[in-house]
Amino acid sequence: AQKVTQAQTEISVVEKEDVTLDCVYETRDTTYYLFWYKQPPSGELVFLIRRNSFDEQNEISGRYSWNFQKSTSSFNFTITASQVVDSAVYFCAPLSGAGSYQLTFGKGTKLSVIP
Amino acid sequence: DTEVTQTPKHLVMGMTNKKSLKCEQHMGHRAMYWYKQKAKKPPELMFVYSYEKLSINESVPSRFSPECPNSSLLNLHLHALQPEDSALYLCASSLTLITGVAKNIQYFGAGTRLSVL
Question: Per the count of CB atoms within 10 A, which of A55, A61, B109, B110 is most buried?
Answer without folding.
Answer: B109
